Write the structure tokens for this entry.
Amino acid sequence: MTLKDTYNNEIAAKLMKDLECKNIMEVPKLEKVVLNMGIWTYIRNGNKDYSVLLEHLSLISGQAPVVKNAKKAISNFKLRAGMPVGLTVTLRGDNMYNFLEKLVTIVLPRVRDFRGISSKSFDSEGNYNFGIKEHTIFPEVPQDDVVKNHGLQITVKTTAKSAKDGKALLTEMGFPFAK
């Protein structure tokens, strides 16, 4: 049973009761998951070819990433307008649920000395942001290709109205929050 089926069959009904929603449409649900990887330090150190990072992020997400370029030049950072500074992928629908299921059940438990993710990273609308220090904890990334470990920023966008509702949703979905 996938995470999407579990949400539709069990979690939504439980949240409706717990959060005292009058209508099933009030129950918080996931909208999208955004993965971001900064590549500016990689490029600044003389590596002009970032295709390995593109490939790794596409293996992690199952979708092709979009290259984000600098909008304006900053001379102190030796940054010119149009230079690539990041990679981003937006996951929706089945890809989103599959990624989150893999993240919660396989990837996060692989982190050494893992004690849970912080529950303080919710914004006022119930969205959750957290970072992963090494993208190599994902099983899809071939360890032989890794030149340098890169961090990964993950944003989970929900329809929750508050941080409390967003946390209730992600807790029911199996996110391992620290005690």
Observations:
- The helical segments are 3-18, 40-44, 51-61, 93-107, 163-172.
- The two ends are 27 Å apart (CA to CA).
- The chain has a mean pLDDT of 88.
- Residues 117 and 177 are 5 Å apart (CA to CA).
